[in-house]
Amino acid sequence: MTNTIDTDDDIKVGLAALASICPVLKDVIAQTPDVPLRRTEPGFASLASIIISQQVSKQSAAAIYGRMEEYIAPLTAKRYLELGEEAWIKIGLSRPKQRTFLALCETIERGDIVLDELSAMTAADAMEKLVAIKGIGPWTAEVYLLFAVGHRDIFPAGDLALQQAAADAYGLEQRPNDKKLRAMAESWAPWRGVAARLLWAFYAVKKGRAAMP
C-alpha cells in the first residue's frame, strides 16, 4: 500500500477501511454516492491556485488565476519574480498574497524547498516545509498535500465545510473547531485524506452545493 491517493480505486479502498473502523462514517458513505478523487499535478501552478483561492469566491479566484497564467508564462517561481510588482498588481493579487508569493518564490529559487520532493516526505515533514514559508498556513499546505501531492493521511481540520459536515454526520449542535475536529479525525488514520473527501462530498449532498477546494 502506497502513502498516496492516486486513483479512484484508492478511494474505494479507503472508504472500505473507514467503514470498518467508524460506524458514523459507514452511514455517511451510504448517503454519499460519489466521492471524487480530484487530483491535480503537483508543482508551483497548483500551489499558486490554492493560495489565490483563499478568502475569495470561486469566480474571483478563477479570474485571478486566469490572469496569472496570461501574464506569467511559463508559470514558474522564477518568472513571477522577474515580472515584478507591476505585473502582480495587474493580475489582481492583494498585497498579502503578493507577499506570500514573493516569500514562496524566493524560497523555491534559493532551493530551500523543492515542491517535487514533497511526495517522498512524510506528511509531517512536508507540512513543516510548507508552513515555514511566510503566508502559507496549515489549510493551504494541507489542501496542496491532499490534492496535488496526494498524501493519504492529510486532513484540513480548519476547513469550515469539513467542520459542518462532521457536525451533520455526528448530530452535533455546533461545528467542531479545528482542534476538536483534528482530534476526531485521529481515529480515521491512515485514511484521513479519504475521510476529508468523503465529508466534502457529504456536505455537497446535505447542502446542495459543492465545497471541496
Automatic annotation (TrEMBL):
<dbReference type="Pfam" id="PF00730">
    <property type="entry name" value="HhH-GPD"/>
</dbReference>
<dbReference type="InterPro" id="IPR003265">
    <property type="entry name" value="HhH-GPD_domain"/>
</dbReference>
<keyword id="KW-0234">DNA repair</keyword>
<feature type="domain" description="HhH-GPD">
    <location>
        <begin position="52"/>
        <end position="204"/>
    </location>
</feature>
<dbReference type="InterPro" id="IPR011257">
    <property type="entry name" value="DNA_glycosylase"/>
</dbReference>
<protein>
    <recommendedName>
        <fullName>DNA-3-methyladenine glycosylase II</fullName>
        <ecNumber>3.2.2.21</ecNumber>
    </recommendedName>
</protein>
<keyword id="KW-0227">DNA damage</keyword>
<dbReference type="InterPro" id="IPR051912">
    <property type="entry name" value="Alkylbase_DNA_Glycosylase/TA"/>
</dbReference>
